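for ur thesis appendix - CsbD family protein. copy paste whatever u need, i formatted it the way the template wanted (i think)
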Amino acid sequence: MSSTTDKIKGATNEVAGNVKQSVGKVTGNEKLQAEGKAQEVEGLAQRAVGGAKQGVKDAADAVKRKL
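the 3d part is after this line
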């Protein structure tokens, strides 16, 4: 997966997780709240992976420019 794809999927999971948490709170569904929190954390991790990939790519590009 590209860094952009990871960042987009991460953001999508964060939003979906937040929605699940909100719905879970409103309905009193603790399981849905927990699932939402897990999905939000997964999204944060995906975005971090995307950022790391972008950092590696940027560093490699900088090295190539110096050669």
